[in-house]
Design goal:
- The protein is α/β, with parallel strands linked by helices and 265 residues long.
- The chain contains twelve helices and ten strands.
- Strands 1-2-4-5-6-7-8-9 form an eight-stranded mixed beta barrel, surrounded by four helices.
- A hairpin with a 4-residue loop joins strand 1 and strand 2 (35-46).
- It starts with a helix and ends in a 5-residue tail after the last helix.
- The mean pLDDT is 95.
- The structure holds ligand C2E and magnesium ion (2 copies).
- The site of one magnesium ion (MG) has 4 residues, from loops.
Length: 265
């Protein structure tokens, strides 16, 4: 296993040099069905092994520190793509980018974000950073300053995988957060028939109410069925993302997708 990790680390280093990483983009929608933006999801096409899912290589990139150069590449590329689409006239969209804890904790993280926005010519309001609930809540006091700095830049902050960790409710209220992304495990287990003992419907309903009362926007991810969409719509969930409405796609496919999407100006 240690051998495997070591090999993987070597492959990751090479992949960074050779530019084997690509971004895919998954559309995000508002309650009214209009497109609000997309989430950038990194993909690794390894020449010998084929497509390696991020769940496999991100943890190793984090352990080895390679997440720093990789994360910066992802941030740059995501900003570049969104700036391009905006230039084509698709204004008003937001690009969501996942950020690892090691990245966020770098002293120059805010500077890196500023640089990416300036270099790629993207407005700060058009960027949303996704931080996991465990990252945000592990050191809320220490994170507050950095979050404030990002907020001052104008960048939006989303809490990813919300509901799987342990959130302090008072920090949820105090930290400068914009969006809660309810974890897909809750969306998957919605059974509108509430007598179903393992249905997550009551939890989803509670989280939507929590977000609304704290003036946070709520994004549901992993929406796969019409029944899930209907349930979330009825509760007036602000945003939705999932295979039902659109899978992650490469930049060219997303460009085509934009041509037929409903986009509010
Ligand atoms: P995440 O940020 O929570 O992203 C959502 C994951 O759910 C993505 O998996 C997406 O493809 C998948 N998904 C979207 N809609 C559906 C659906 O309807 N059903 C199901 N079953 N799945 C759906 P993916 O691309 O494999 O990424 C997995 C995780 O890897 C991400 O979870 C994120 O934590 C991490 N990740 C991906 N790209 C990056 C990146 O650029 N940087 C960092 N730090 N992490 C990344
Ligand atoms: Mg995410
Ligand atoms: Mg998530």
């Amino acid at each position: 296993n240690a051998q495997e990790r070591l090999e993987m680390e070597g492959l990751l280093r090479r992949a960074l040099d050779q530019g084997e990483f690509r971004l895919h983009f998954q559309p995000q929608f508002r309650l009214d069905g209009s497109l609000s933006g997309c989430e950038a999801l990194v993909r690794w096409e390894q020449p010998r092994m084929g497509m390696i899912p991020p769940g496999k290589f991100i943890p190793i990139a984090e352990e080895t520190g390679l997440i720093l150069p990789l994360g910066n590449c992802v941030l740059r590329e995501a900003c570049r793509c969104m700036a391009g689409w905006i230039q084509q006239g698709y204004t008003g969209l937001t690009m969501a980018v996942n950020v690892s804890s090691m990245q966020f904790e770098q002293d120059d993280f805010v500077l890196r974000v500023e640089e990416a926005l300036a270099t790629e010519n993207l407005g700060p309001h058009q960027l949303e950073l996704e931080l996991t609930e465990s990252l945000v809540m592990e050191n809320p006091r220490e994170n507050a300053r950095r979050l404030e700095a990002l907020r001052e830049l104008g960048v939006r902050i989303a809490v990813d995988d919300f509901g799987t960790g342990y959130s302090s409710l008072s920090y949820l209220q105090r930290l400068p957060l914009d969006t809660l992304k309810i974890d897909q495990s809750f969306v998957r287990d919605i059974y509108p028939d509430t007598s179903h003992s393992i249905s997550s419907a009551p939890i989803v309903e509670t989280i939507i109410g929590l977000a609304r009362n704290l003036h946070l926007s709520l994004m549901a991810e992993g929406v796969e069925t019409e029944a899930q969409r209907e349930f979330l719509s009825n509760l007036k969930c602000d945003g939705m993302q999932g295979y039902l409405m659109g899978r992650p796609m490469d930049a060219a496919a997303f460009g085509l997708f934009l041509q037929s999407a409903t986009i509010l100006k």
